[in-house]
UniProtKB/TrEMBL annotation, chain A:
It comes from the Bacteria. This is Thiamin diphosphate-binding fold. Residues 259-335 form the Pyruvate:ferredoxin oxidoreductase core domain. InterPro entries: 2-oxoacid_oxidoreductase, PFOR_II, Pyrv_Fd/Flavodoxin_OxRdtase_N, THDP-binding, Transketo_C/PFOR_II. GO terms for molecular function: oxidoreductase activity. Keywords: Oxidoreductase. Residues 22-198 form the Pyruvate flavodoxin/ferredoxin oxidoreductase pyrimidine binding domain. The keyword Oxidoreductase applies.
UniProtKB/TrEMBL annotation, chain B:
Keywords: Oxidoreductase. It comes from the Bacteria. It comes from Syntrophomonas zehnderi OL-4. This is Thiamin diphosphate-binding fold. GO terms for molecular function: oxidoreductase activity, acting on the aldehyde or oxo group of donors, iron-sulfur protein as acceptor; thiamine pyrophosphate binding. PANTHER family: 2-OXOGLUTARATE OXIDOREDUCTASE SUBUNIT KORB-RELATED (PTHR48084), SUBUNIT OF PYRUVATE:FLAVODOXIN OXIDOREDUCTASE (PTHR48084:SF3). GO terms for biological process: cellular respiration. The lineage of its organism: Bacteria, Bacillati, Bacillota, Clostridia, Eubacteriales. InterPro entries: 2-oxoacid:Fd_oxidoreductase, THDP-binding, TPP_enzyme_TPP-bd. Gene3D superfamilies: 3.40.50.970.
């Protein structure tokens, strides 16, 4: 494994810079990208760093092409990734669907911007539905919703491993605030943390003599019979569900004996965490639950937290108009806890927004 | 009498193939198979096919092969070639995939002079979906979506693919238009297009004029007449750009 960082170091960088270095440290061979704010600097850093480590880059003609070139590159056995946002994420659902159908170990970094349509260029949490269940498939993808630059770095490193080990597409779901702001980060080479990187392997171009050493590799994503596809999708579903317990990650604080659980993901969870501390200091018994993986979702863990808390209410806070809320509700169907919401589509949520909302509903 | 032979690079368990009787794809794929054999490149070739009738070629060759979505063969092959330049990448598509839904990919791959070989089969309609108008449908030609004949005032004139690609590419590219009616010439073009990729020169593109009796609703002689009299008149056959010396008409 090529060393990129050398001695582990503290830096003060933007999230996009953290992402570029993380991909480099994770051993990504090639990036395909297309400009869209707020993820551009991932490409800017990658193109500057890549030649030093003999890595490749191609700026494609659009996001369709960026996604499909990534699909081709991983088929050939190279670690490939892309990054996008907003309308670019919409276009990439087509190639991401192919990755889902062919179980291609692609890695996509999504820095959410405002929507619908071209929306705004910096921030939202409005790409949750798209990133978790986009395309004409069943959401057999792994989605990490990061909250800090350290998490961007850590989950990109982990994401490449999860993708190549299990062959489900992996997405790192950030946002423009995380992309553009600077904060402290520890950059490291994975081997220094005892992380063994999974080696990529080809699905095509397998070497040897076809017909003598081996059969040709014919990769397929379209089927003649309904029953063939049915079996493929059921198999993927079974494998995804069996894998889920190993993949699921979440954070929980102070849920036991609480009156209200505040649920948030991504950067909003930082405000939720602060709000819980402040509310507790004021004698209000609030707890905090944050799914880190939105797919697969920590369903049982959340149900357990609700049961242990005894809380009558849950507050879902998100910078979207209910995308996360819908995801949570479908996952905890049958729970009787009352669900309140703080929907602020496309704008940031701070501690006081949550505190005020909690006080208004308790 | 000579025994009919099939190319060594064909994948026999999938033969006989599934193209309609009279379809030109079988001829193009036989020419391609023979060229792969003659050049001895079967083991390093990656074959990528588009959606549409070209999809029926997905397991046609005993070569590593992949599928994608309609129009997206060009970027998938670009991704493979960029990641593994030692592989020989052949993208196989129809006129709808190449000139319509995937035209931005074709155009930009040509501009970037991607080291790919793309073979585009032009049969003047969308065959797999039931014979709709294509970018290459001739003026006046009846299709399911131009039932009274293509009116260029409303839907434009046929896309002249090799001509526009020749304009976009540098001198190191190879661009030709062949036809299934001239088999030896077609093989020569395919060979040149692969050689150009092997030598790392640049983008290599061969459009092949082909037949679709099912959707043209033509018998054998009408089919051949449409190809030779109508199509070859509108779409000039020949090499438009060759890094290997003088073009052949």
């Amino acid at each position: 494994m090529q060393r990129v960082i050398g001695e582990s170091k503290r830096s003060f960088v933007t999230g996009n810079e953290a992402a570029a270095w993380a991909c480099m440290a994770a051993g990504a061979d090639i990036m395909f990208g297309y400009p869209i704010t707020p993820q551009n600097e991932i490409m800017h850093y990658w193109t500057r760093i890549a030649p030093q480590f003999e890595r490749e880059f191609l700026q494609t003609e659009d996001e369709l092409s960026a996604g499909f070139t990534v699909c081709g590159a991983v088929q050939s056995g190279k670690k490939a990734f892309t990054a996008t946002a907003g309308p670019g994420n919409v276009l990439m659902q087509e190639p991401f669907g192919m990755a889902e159908a062919m179980r291609l170990p692609i890695v996509g970094i999504i820095q959410q911007r405002g929507g619908p349509s071209s929306g705004t260029v910096i921030y939202s949490q409005q790409e949750v539905t798209l990133t978790t269940f986009g395309g004409n498939g069943e959401g057999h993808r792994i989605v990490y919703s990061t909250a800090t630059h350290q998490e961007i770095y850590d989950y990109i490193v982990k994401g490449f491993n999860v993708a190549w080990k299990h062959r489900f597409p992996v997405f790192i779901l950030g946002d423009g605030y995380q992309a553009k702001m600077r904060e402290p980060l520890e950059m490291y080479d994975p081997q220094d943390k005892g992380i063994e990187m999974v080696e990529p392997y080809p699905l095509l171009g397998l070497g040897g003599k076809i017909g003598t050493d081996r059969e040709p590799s014919h990769l397929c994503n379209i089927y003649s019979l309904e029953e063939e596809l049915y079996e493929v999708v059921l198999k993927f579903a079974a494998e995804y569900e069996a894998l889920a317990p190993q993949i699921i990650e979440y954070e929980e604080r102070e849920c036991d004996q609480s009156d209200i659980i505040i649920l948030a993901h991504g950067v909003v969870s930082r405000a939720a965490d602060d709000a819980v501390k402040a509310l507790r200091a004021q004698g209000i018994k609030a707890g905090y639950f944050r799914p880190i993986t939105l797919r697969p979702f920590p369903q049982q863990q959340l149900r357990d937290a609700i049961a242990r808390s005894g809380a009558k209410k849950m507050l879902i806070a998100e910078s979207a108009y209910g995308q996360f809320d819908r995801l949570v509700k479908q996952e905890i169907y049958g729970e009787t806890i009352s669900i309140e919401n703080l929907f602020m589509p496309g704008v940031g949520i701070i501690e006081n927004d949550i505190i005020n909302k909690v006080k208004s509903i308790l | 009498m000579a025994t009919p032979t099939v190319p060594k690079s064909w994948y026999l368990p999938t033969k006989p193939h599934k193209f309609c009787p009279g379809c030109g794809h079988g001829i193009v794929l036989k020419a391609l198979g023979e060229v792969i054999d003659e050049m001895g490149i079967q083991d390093q070739t990656i074959f990528g096919c588009d959606i549409g009738c070209s999809l029926l070629s997905w397991n046609f060759f005993a070569c590593d092969s992949t599928q994608t979505h309609h129009g997206r063969t060009t970027p998938v092959m670009t991704g493979i070639k960029r990641a593994r330049p030692e592989l020989l990448c052949i993208g196989y598509m129809g006129d709808g995939g190449g000139y319509s839904i995937g035209s931005q990919h074709l155009l930009n791959a040509a501009v970037r002079n991607e080291k790919l070989t793309l073979v585009l089969v032009n049969n003047t309609n969308y065959g797999m979906t039931g014979g709709q108008m294509a970018p290459t449908t001739l003026p006046g030609q009846k299709t399911e979506t131009s039932p009274f004949g293509r009116n260029p005032e409303q839907t434009g004139y046929p896309t002249m693919g090799p001509e526009f690609i020749a304009q976009l590419t540098p001198d190191s590219a190879y661009v030709a238009r062949g036809t299934v009616s001239k088999y030896k010439q077609l093989k020569k073009y395919l060979r040149s297009a692969l050689r150009n990729q092997m030598e790392g020169n640049g983008f290599s593109f061969v459009e092949v004029l082909s037949t679709c009796p099912t959707n043209w609703r033509t018998n054998a002689s009408q089919t051949w007449n449409f190809l030779e009299d109508e199509m070859e008149k509108y779409f000039p056959v020949g090499e438009l750009k060759t890094p290997f010396g003088k073009g052949e008409k």
